[in-house]
Amino acid sequence: FFSAPQETVSGESEEESSGVNLMEFSDEILLHILSYVPCTDLVLNVRRTCRKLATLCLDKSLTHAVLLQKDYKVNKDKVKQLMRDIGKEIYQLNMAGCYWLPSSSIDHITRCKNLVKLNLSGCRITSLHLSKTLSTLQHLRSLAIDVNPGFDASQLSSECKATLSRVLELKQTLYTPSYGVVPCCTSLEKLLLYFEILDHSREGFMLSGQLMVGESNVPHYQNLRVFYARLAPGYVNQEVVRLYLAVLSDRTPENLHAFLISAPGSFAETGATKNLLDSMARNVRLDALQLPKAWINGSGLLQHLKFNNPFYFSFSRCTLSGGQLIQRVMNGGKDLKSLTSLNLSGCIHCLAPESLFRKAEDDIDSSILESLVVSCCNLRHLNLSAAHHHSSKNIGNHLCQLLARLKHLLSLALPVCSITDVAANMEKPPTQSNAMPQTLGKKVRIGVQTYSNQKPHSSVFWALMGSLPFLENLEIIGSSFSSAMPRNEPAIRNSLPPCIRAQSVGDAEVAAISQVTYLQSLTLAQLPNILTGSGLVSIGLQCQHLRTLSLANLGMMGNVVYMSALMDMLKHCKCLRDLRLEQPYFSAGAQFFQALSHCSSLQRLCIVSRSGTLQSDAVMSFMANCLEVVMCHMFMGESLTVCKNLQQSLVRSFQAERPALNVVIFPLLHEDLTEVIRDVPMRHLDEITLFKSRVAEEPPNLWW
């Protein structure tokens, strides 16, 4: 990468020299280049190249903030050496998701005397190690940790508690019922809570949401500005979060400006939570809001809450109508330029004037969407997935045409049926979910690239993609799609048929996405009219910045019709890091893995396939060729014996040289799947293994 200046070969002029001497660049340019190199490489390798780099690699701009998150090559020895060399220079240290490092690695953080921000989410850490580390960090103001079974707050020293008393920002992931370190943090201004407590122990015993003995101390919320809680499924998580909320209901902090609770399923409102919401309506003005659907549905809460300069709203899965959205939240369509992120996922009536007599499949009211687009003109993140947003046949009022006005969009999630060009598809496609998709009555021959009679360049979706030059994250998900592998439950054996409006969405629409040249993340799920997958090849050629790709249930369910196109696409995806495939009857054989080996940057692979097959030798060869891969998850139709043997072979062959390697090969429909899932590191489980819409899932910049 870098090399010291070298003399040119005799008889060869400088212009004819094939090498480029980077050392002739200015310090400013070199520092910018070096900022893209992992800190461990800078300090332990690059700075030893020459004197100039030795100085530049220790520049404060490079050592002030150290990011070990997703640096899968870092090991305990590198952490030890890094802290020895530059520990005193580090002010921010992010080790989030370094699950493979032993807890003893945390002890070396004591050398970072000037540390202000520390992220240890997903790291192995005991109460004693935490106490020892925090006791020396007198300047710490921001902390992220996990609270695992066995955590004991009584083991925290007085010096550790003194450090915690000065912490202003705390992110805490709970795997056991506990207050964690929250009672020690008496100056909290931002509190982020992630509840990942399971309802059952490994032995099958029901767990209780009651806190452990000795945890009678209550949180201190008087200075709180941001309260965020995200709950995984399960009643225990709901019980524990109510204990955290009980203190808030007694006295609402005066400076509270962001209140967010993300809870799946039903999370009933209680007297205490009602008192809390009433107090908030009287005493605070919010900038960000997210509440469980049961707290909003049928209540007049939104009519009474006051907002200042809101930047984030989430009404995911609420029965909020478009009329209520415009009148109660957006002040009758007044200026809301401050709003940058809006999550209306599963909000099935949000684009209709009322919901009382409306069917979910009825056409939307384009005037409501137009009011939203006009008043929220600076939206950067918009999620409209998990609903039937059907446009009428009126020209100029299509959902895609209205969204094209949002020129600042960075991420967008839409249901498949919403991008159908209604005016161009007057004939109804077949209603049978397993029937061969048709293109305006013409017969289709498999293996031949096929579009409808309509030219793809004239479709409303093609125009939308061409009007969003800065889009980085796109999700097109069928409104009735559900993953075969949900959280904490057995695998789903059957899936619902796609919406009838979605039946015509296929290769032409996928090809339209290739216009978004700066796209970094793409999710496509339940596109029934994929015939060849030819649009995928266009994306592979044009979207050279693509890092994350998730494909699920494309085309007919009984045949992977796009396999040839997918393999052609993968040959061009040099920047791809994460690949998730979910498709029944997927065959992960030698040809597939040979194509996948072209993805030289690939780090994580997840395949979910009911009745799918794999070729063990091909998997082993792929892992040997792709040295960056650290996560391999395959949930297929193979026997338990085949899966176990392959998993053991992979771990035995590659674990030593890849300390972060995480391998799970397991039958998708096996009864013990949920037990296997619980051992997957949360970083992988949350980011790739489990399918979900991630657009506007959380407020932007929620954590540093």
TrEMBL record:
Task: Tell me the Pfam families matching this sequence.
Answer: F-box-like, LRR_FBXL18
* A GO term from the CC aspect: SCF ubiquitin ligase complex
| The organism's place on the tree of life at top rank | Eukaryota
What region holds the F-box domain? 19-66
SUPFAM superfamilies documented for this protein: F-box domain (SSF81383), RNI-like (SSF52047)
User: What PROSITE patterns does the database record attribute to this sequence?
Assistant: FBOX, LRR
PANTHER family for this protein: F-BOX AND LEUCINE-RICH REPEAT PROTEIN 18, F-BOX/TPR REPEAT PROTEIN POF3
Q: Please state what the protein is called.
A: FXL18 protein
Q: Which organism is it from?
A: Crypturellus soui
Please name the taxonomic classification of the source. Eukaryota, Metazoa, Chordata, Craniata, Vertebrata
This protein's encoding gene: Fbxl18
